[in-house]
Amino acid sequence: MFRSADHDKSTHQSGPRTNAHRLDAFCRDDRGTVTIFALMMFVLMLAAGGIAIDVMRYETQRTQLQYTLDRAVLAAASLSQQEDPETVVIDYFATSGLANYRLDVDVEEGLNYRRVSAAVEMDMQTYFMNMFGVSALTSPARGAAEERIMDIEVSMVLDISGSMGWSNKLRNMRNAANDFIDTMLDLNTAGDQQVSLSIIPYNSQVNTGSTLASVFTLSTEHDESTCTRFDPADYNSTAINPGDTIERIAHFDYRYQYSYTTFRTPHCTTSDYAAILPWSNDAGDLHGLVNSLHANGNTAIDLGMRWGVGLLDPVAQPALSSLIDAGEVDADFEGRPYSYEEDEVLKIVILMTDGENTSQYDVAQAYKRGPSTVYRDPESGRTSAYLPNYDLYYWHHNGSYRYEPYGGANAVPIPWTELWATYSARMLAGEYYYYAGDWDYYYNLRYDAIERYAGPNEADANLRNICDAANEAGIIVFTIAFEAPTRGQNVMQHCATTPAHYYNAEGIEISEAFASIATSINQLRLIQ
Q1: Which of 491, 502, 484 lies closest to 164, judged by CA?
Q2: Is pLDDT of 11 > 60?
């Protein structure tokens, strides 16, 4: 059987064409390419996820290291810590569950401070990053803590007004103040007295007391008592200069001023009861004063704060030095109150009240000192009163009017201080002017001779000004509104150095407030 030439030709050409077709088809076939891409993406995602896991492990380890280190250096830096500081840090890490760390501890100590700094690092084997040539990550942590007992000057300004006698407030305040005193005095050691405390009790008055009166200059119209007052301008400054004259409150009977009676109750006590205790480190004296306090009188927060700030101002240094010479103050306190620029000195006021400012009273300036308008004959003791409206003298023994006092040139004007120490305002006016007929002068003596020299608004303004001056000078002011009304709370909030320095307390919460203040003073500080 014979094949044609065409048949043979077609048969020989079919092989190459088929192979080329198959190659072309293979090149055009895209089946399986998504799988390859997905596999590549999976590998990349697995690597990225693995790196994230290693990073999270690293961060967790670093956080645990830092947390352990912070706690360790805080505990080791405490001056009350009896163990070796480096041992304390090592023990913290030994019990932390961490292992294979490298720890370096440095301790600096002095008489009044301890600083502990530490650095730690720890290697972590990676699970995934080793695929990229990173076999381990090193977690570092550094930290330092310091407790430094600074020279601390504290003024405790304590409210003992009448309302403190309600609802056990005075007892709660005593307990809180006594605990605070103990906490502060614990910072003192036999060879290093760091803390000086001044206590300034106040109600409607502040009793300066015989100790401070011996080194500050009080006005001399009388020496029966040592309560003082200040002008509004005085509240713009923190200083009370021992060489400048401070005005005494008159020795007079405010309680019975409208009663027809002889002198009964002095407006300012003639004893050292509730007197300021300045610059003390004597626990017995401090507790003794606090425990002796009782509640009575109105409220003059500005007067208390004025003295509290003044005992922190360096202008008072000569007064403190004089008390050291007299054996009244510890010699370790020489140089206090320190300059505001002195390094490592804390000046602190703790101001508490359960009320709000009320009115403050004194004898008016025209009737407070010097010779009065009542005369006494030294030989007979008979008196006569000068009548300003008539320019005459009324002789009391016979009811006559004359151009000169009884006794003539020998008659001596009775000092105002003697009259106020003898009569109430009503009796003084009545005894010498009621029957004399000079009614204007009679009413002046009876109603105007004892004046309100500061009302609640003026006292609030004074308080705000002295608080502003204290804060500007760098004095730290803590305030406690102890079940106080709104106005009292408002001025306490204004006086506090920051809102965190203000406490609103009820009942036994006042102990928590004082304890918190003590903690704030003594607190350790993370410094890195």
Answers
A1: 484
A2: no
- Asked if residues 286 and 181 have their Cβ atoms less than 8 Å apart, the reply is yes
Helices (H), 158-215: 169-185, 209-213
**Mean pLDDT of all residues in 42-50:** 64
Angstrom distance (rounded) from CA 406 to CA 427: 21
Confidence of residue 30 (pLDDT cuts 50, 70, 90): low
List, in order, residues 6 or more apart from 121 with CB less than 8 Å away: 65, 101, 102, 138, 139, 140, 141
The whole-angstrom separation of Cα 274 and Cα 200 is: 8
Q: Where do the domains of the chain lie, and which CATH numbers do they carry?
A: 33-148 (no CATH), 151-362+453-526 (3.40.50.410), 365-448 (no CATH)
Amino acid at 311: L
Each residue's pLDDT tens digit, 372-414: 999 999 999 999 999 999 999 999 999 999 999 999 999 999 9
CA 66 to CA 285: how far, in whole Å? 46
Tell me the HSE value of 245 on the side-chain side, using a 13 A CA sphere. 6
Residue 49 confidence class, pLDDT cut points 50, 70, 90: low
Q: Which residues contact 290 (CB under 8 A, 6 or more apart)?
A: 158, 174, 177, 178, 181, 199
pLDDT-above-90 percentage for the chain: 73
> Under a CB-based contact definition with an 8 Å cutoff, are residues 207 and 300 in contact?
no
- The average pLDDT across 232-246 equals 98
| pTM given for the model | 0.76
- Give the neighbor-by-neighbor strand order of the sheet with 151-159: 277-280, 195-202, 151-159, 345-353, 476-482, 502-505
Q: How many other CB atoms are found less than 10 A from the CB of residue 326?
A: 11
User: Are 201 and 289 within 8 A, CB to CB?
Assistant: yes
Distance CA 114, CA 85 (A): 9
Which pLDDT does position 106 carry in this prediction?
A: 94
Cα torsion angle, 63, 64, 70, 73, sign: negative
* Helix ranges restricted to H, 358-476: 416-420, 425-429, 439-443, 456-473
- The whole-number average pLDDT for the span 183-208 is 93
- Say if CB 326 and CB 214 are below 8 A apart: yes
CA angle 125, 126, 128 (to 5 degrees): 160
